[in-house]
Amino acid sequence: MKIAVIQPKMIGDVLITSVVFEELRLKFPEATLHYIINKNTLPVIENNPFINKVIILDPNIEKGLAGFISQLNRIRSENYDVIIDSYAKLKTAFLCKFSGAKTTLSFHKSYSQFFYTDTIIRSKNSISTATKAVEHRLQLLKPLGIDFQVIKPKIYLTAAEIEIATKNLEQNGLDLKSPIVMISALGSSESKTYPLNYMAKVIDEIALNNSIQILFNYIPNQKKEALELFKLCKKETQEKIFFDFYAKTLREFMIVASQCSALIGNEGGATNIAKALNVPTFTIFSPFILKNDWNMFENGTSNVSVHISDYNPIYLENNKNNFSEIYQLLKPELFNNSLLLFLKNNKLQ
Question: Is the pLDDT of residue 141 over 90?
C-alpha cells in the first residue's frame, strides 16, 4: 500500500499533521508513506522515522496553471492508493480528485463530496489535551480503520546536530549550566504580536532571575522590531539578552531551542516546535486565535498559555479590526502570577 498525506501550509501545521504517520505506520507497517509539503517546512519533519519520502511543492517554481499541472503530474506518477488531505482547500482537493488514488480523505465541506471518497466532520469540542489542532488530523484516519488515540508531535534531532549547537552556544558566550530562555519575540503578523511595551515588561520579569540567559526568536525581516523590543527592556535585562546570537535557519532554531529551559512569548510555530521538543512553554495568544483549539497539551505546569478571554469575556467576533485595542486589555499584570508560577515550576525563578 502507498499512502500520501498532503499539507502544503505553515510550519506548525506540517509539524502537527506529522502525527498521522506514527498511526499509519502502526496500522500498516509495510506501507510506503509520503508527505507532500511546501519546501520551507521541510526542516520540521527531517529524520522522521515514519516517513519514507517527502514530496516538495515549491510555489516559487511551480506557478499558475502550468505549475499546478506539474504538481498534479508528479503526484499522479506516484500511483498512490490513499491520499489524506489535511489542508482541505480547493487546490489540494483538485490534486486529490485527479491523483488517481482509489481512496481520498479530507474534512467535510459543502463541496467536498465531489472531490473525496470519504470525509470527516470536525468535532466541535476537544476530547483530549491534544486539542482540536491534533485531534482533527488523527480523526482523518478513521475511514482506514484507525481509532483515535493521543499522539504528540515530535522533532527528530541527531546527536551531531546537538553537539554543533552546544558548541555554537558556548562560542557565543552562553553558559550551558545556567538556564537559557528563548523569547518568541514577535508573531507572524502584527495581529499576532503582543504589544512590544507589554512584552518588554514580561521579559523584565523573567530577567529577575540572576542566572537567566535570554535569546530572541524572530525572522530576519523582523529585526527592526526585535531591536525595538530589546531597547524597551530595562538596562539590567538587556545585559542578559544575547541579541547578536541568532539561529540562521529553521533547523538551527530547533536545535538551539532544544537546549533552552523554556520558550516564552507569542503563539506560533515556535511554540509548537518547543512542545515537540519537550521544552516548557508559556504562550501569549493573539485575541483572534481560538486558544482552546491550539493550546495543545496544556497542563498548568510545563505548558501554560494566556488569552484575553481568560480575564475579559470581550466578544471578539465583531472586533477583528481592533486587535491593537483588544491587546491593550491584556496587560502583563493580569497574568504575572501565572508567569511567576510557571517560572517557579520550571526552576527559572
Answer: yes
